[in-house]
Amino acid sequence: MMKKNELCSEVTGSVWKIKKQVGEEILEGDIVMILESMKMEIPVIAEEPGTLIELKVSEEDTVAEGQIVAIVESK
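Request: output the structure for the sequence above.
Response:
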């Protein structure tokens, strides 16, 4: 059975760089994207291996703390 994991922003800031693309296999610990807040780079890290099935933001988008930024489907 497939399980969907929501990756959330830990900070209010902006999307600086998206490192993984939809359809890409990711491993636990992979950096999916990097957020920028107050001149600091904050990585959004996959907590489980799986396939990136949706990006809910684009580079330069503003994000709020707790906002869902990507969805990973795992087995």
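The chain has a mean pLDDT of 96.
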